[in-house]
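Tokens help. Our protein:
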Amino acid sequence: MAFKKVNENTPFTKAVIKMVKKIPRGKVATYGQIAKISGNSGGSRGVAWILHACSKKYKLPWQRVINSQGKISFHKFTKEYKTQKRLLEKEGIQFSDTGTVNFKKFQWNMKTAPKKKIPASISGGAVSKVKPKMFA
């Protein structure tokens, strides 16, 4: 599947960028966690697309976002996996022998989630398995 340009002006994209910037050094968040606090609880795949497209431009700490199993989502022997693991370890994040992060110790707990949800019609609603609506 070819990568499509992310619309950086949607409320969901703006919220994701804002939330990822808030993840403190030495903490991690999941794709689903960022999607939920950004107003689209089904938008974890969209978060991944946004990180892929916007991390350089907005200087996002992309390495602090991992999957819901507490693992880095890249394949273990890739350059991207090694880079993300190195950056997280540099921040003090520790990995178990199985490659997981202890959420009780390292997961970011945002105390004040947004009070107003972004309507599905604006955020793109649920993310399609084929192509997220927000990127159409």
